[in-house]
C-alpha cells in the first residue's frame, strides 16, 4: 500500500492549491480526482468557461451597439458563429487544465484518477479505470467541492431543463431562457445569452437579486440589467417546471398569489450549490455533516477525525474558489507547524456581469442589524473622466466606515473593472485602514480606481471633490 504524508481528495482550486503548498513545504503529497481532468468545477464548468463566454459575448455586444459611438463604422452584416464561441471557451478551459497538470508535475505531486472513498479513517480506496487501489497517509484533506443544487420538484433533463454545466455548452442560442434564481451564476449566464439575442427572464424567490450583497448593489445591478433587456420576476416562488417538446413552461406564484406563466425553450435552474460528499465513505469514519450536508470542522478546519481536514465548498462559508484556495494554504501551513490566519470577513464576492459587482466586509443591512454606528460615502462612476472616456458610466462605489474610529467596515462597488478594484478594498481593510487613509492615498488619473478615493472622501466629512 502506497503511503503519503498528505492525500488531497479533489483537484479543484482548493484541492490543487492545498497540494501545491503541501509539496512546497516538503510533504510527500498525492491528489485524487474522480474526473478525467484536474481543476474541478471552477476550471472545467464554472469560473473559467463562464468568464470566457462573458468576454466573448461582451465583444459581440460592443461591436453591435458601441462601435459607432467610438467612430468605428462596421461595414456589412455582423454575423455570430456561436459554435466558434463555444469552441474558444473550451480551448481556454483546456489550456488552463494543462497548466494544472504542469504544476502537479513541477511540484512532484502524485496524481491518482478515480473516486476516493474512505475504507476507514486511515485508508482511502481509489476506484478508477485501472481498478481499485488502496492508499494511506498521515493526513487527509477533503476538497471535493460542490455541484449545482435543484428544487425537489424539478426534473432536470439536462437538455431543456438545465444547470449551469449544460448552459456552458449549448448547441444553440436560446430564444427564451428562463433563469430560476437571481444569484451570481444565473445572472452571469443570463447576461451572456441576452447579449447574444435571447429573451431572458429571471425568477427570484427573494425580493431582490443577489440577496446576500448590499441592497444598493442589488438595486443598481437590476436597473442596469433591465436596461439591457432582462426581465425580472421578484418575490416569486417557482411552483412547477415542465418540458413540452422542445420547450419548457415555468409557473411561479408571487407573494400576492399572482401566477406568472413563462414559456421558453430552456430553463436554467440556478438555485445555489450543494456539497459533494456522496461516495466519500464518511460512514466509515467519525466525520459528521451539518443540516445542509456540509462536513463539520473546527477553527483549524479539522474534522471529528483530527488527521482529516476539509476545505472549500464542502464546509461552511461562501462557496468561492478563492476562499477554498485560502483554506487549502491554511491547512498546508498548519500541517507544517506554522500559524496561518484567514479573515473570513475579508473574502471578497464578485459578480462578473457588466458592469461588474464586487463587495467586501459588512453590508449596510448587517451594520444596522448589529447596531453599529457607521457613516457612508458614495461616488458615481459617471463622474469619472475615465468612465466617460470608455463609456462605462453605470454604477458607484460605496464605503462604510465606523462613525467613531473611521475604520473602513465595508466597501461595495458596481462598475467597470470592479472585480479588480475590490483588491484595493481588501488590502486597505486587511491593514485596518480608515476612510481618511484611503482618501489621502494618491490614485492615478484617469482611472476607475479614483472612484475608491472619492468614495473615501465622501465618507470623510463629505469631501468628495468631483461630484
Notes on the structure:
With 467 residues, the protein is an alpha/beta fold. The chain has 3 domains: 2-147 and 274-344, FAD/NAD(P)-binding domain; 161-271, 3-Layer(bba) Sandwich (FAD/NAD(P)-binding domain); 355-459, Enolase-like, domain 1 (2-Layer Sandwich), CATH 3.30.390.30. The protein is 31% helix and 26% strand. It has helices at 13-24, 40-45, 47-65, 82-106, 164-167, 184-195, 215-227, 321-335, 364-370, 385-390, 418-430, 435-439, 450-459, and strands at 2-9, 29-33, 110-113, 115-120, 123-128, 131-142, 146-148, 161-162, 176-180, 199-203, 231-233, 236-244, 247-254, 259-264, 266-269, 273-275, 308-310, 349-351, 356-361, 374-380, 396-402, 408-415. Strands 1, 2, 3, 4, 5, 6 and 17 form a 7-stranded mixed β-sheet that branches. Helix 1 (13-24) runs parallel beside helix 8 (321-335), helix 3 (47-65) packs antiparallel against helix 4 (82-106) and helix 3 runs parallel beside helix 6 (184-195). The longest helix has 25 residues, at 82-106. The radius of gyration is 24 Å and the shape is globular. It starts with a strand and ends in an 8-residue tail after the last helix. 46% of the residues are buried.
Amino acid at each position: 500500500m502506497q503511503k503519503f504524508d498528505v492525500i488531497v481528495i479533489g483537484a479543484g482550486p482548493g484541492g490543487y492549491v492545498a497540494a501545491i503548498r503541501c509539496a512546497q513545504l516538503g510533504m510527500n503529497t498525492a491528489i485524487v480526482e474522480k474526473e478525467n481532468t484536474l481543476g474541478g468545477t471552477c476550471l472545467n464548468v464554472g469560473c473559467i468557461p463562464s468568464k470566457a463566454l462573458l468576454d466573448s459575448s461582451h465583444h459581440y455586444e460592443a461591436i453591435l451597439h458601441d462601435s459607432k459611438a467610438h467612430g468605428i463604422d462596421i461595414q456589412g452584416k455582423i454575423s455570430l458563429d456561436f459554435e466558434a464561441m463555444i469552441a474558444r471557451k473550451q480551448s481556454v478551459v483546456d489550456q488552463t487544465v494543462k497548466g494544472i497538470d504542469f504544476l502537479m508535475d513541477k511540484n512532484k505531486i502524485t496524481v491518482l484518477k478515480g473516486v476516493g472513498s474512505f475504507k476507514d479513517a486511515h485508508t482511502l480506496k481509489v476506484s478508477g479505470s485501472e481498478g481499485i487501489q488502496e492508499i494511506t497517509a498521515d493526513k487527509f484533506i477533503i476538497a471535493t467541492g460542490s455541484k449545482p443544487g435543484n428544487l425537489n420538484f424539478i426534473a432536470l433533463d439536462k437538455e431543456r431543463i438545465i444547470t449551469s454545466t449544460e448552459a456552458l455548452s449549448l448547441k444553440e442560442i436560446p430564444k427564451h431562457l428562463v433563469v430560476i434564481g437571481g444569484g451570481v451564476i444565473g445572472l452571469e449566464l443570463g447576461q451572456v445569452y441576452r447579449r447574444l439575442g435571447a429573451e431572458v427572464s429571471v425568477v427570484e424567490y427573494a425580493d431582490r437579486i443577489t440577496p446576500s450583497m448590499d441592497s444598493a448593489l442589488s438595486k443598481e445591478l437590476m436597473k442596469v440589467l433591465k436596461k439591457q433587456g432582462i426581465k425580472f420576476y421578484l418575490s416569486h416562488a417557482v411552483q412547477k417546471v415542465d418540458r413540452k417538446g422542445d420547450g419548457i413552461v415555468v409557473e411561479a406564484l408571487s407573494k400576492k398569489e399572482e401566477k406568472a406563466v413563462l414559456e421558453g425553450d430552456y430553463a436554467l435552474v440556478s438555485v445555489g450549490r450543494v456539497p459533494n460528499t456522496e461516495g466519500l465513505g464518511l460512514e466509515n469514519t467519525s466525520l459528521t455533516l451539518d443540516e445542509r450536508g456540509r462536513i463539520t470542522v473546527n477553527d483549524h478546519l479539522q474534522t471529528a477525525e483530527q488527521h482529516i481536514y476539509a476545505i472549500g465548498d464542502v464546509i461552511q462559508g461562501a462557496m468561492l474558489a478563492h476562499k477554498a484556495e485560502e483554506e487549502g494554504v491554511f491547512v498546508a501551513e498548519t500541517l507544517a507547524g506554522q500559524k496561518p490566519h484567514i479573515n473570513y470577513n475579508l473574502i471578497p464576492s464578485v459578480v462578473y456581469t457588466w458592469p461588474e459587482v464586487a463587495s467586501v466586509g459588512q453590508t449596510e443591512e448587517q451594520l444596522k442589524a448589529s447596531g453599529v454606528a457607521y457613516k457612508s460615502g458614495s461616488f458615481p462612476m459617471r463622474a469619472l473622466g475615465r468612465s466617460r472616456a470608455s463609456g462605462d458610466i453605470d454604477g458607484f462605489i460605496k464605503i462604510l466606515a465606523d462613525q467613531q474610529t473611521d475604520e473602513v467596515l465595508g466597501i461595495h462597488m458596481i462598475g467597470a473593472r470592479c472585480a479588480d478594484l475590490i483588491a484595493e478594498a481588501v488590502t486597505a481593510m486587511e491593514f485596518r485602514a480608515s476612510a481618511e487613509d484611503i482618501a489621502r492615498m494618491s490614485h492615478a488619473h484617469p482611472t476607475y480606481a479614483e472612484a475608491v478615493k472619492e468614495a473615501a472622501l465622501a465618507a470623510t466629512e463629505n469631501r468628495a471633490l468631483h461630484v
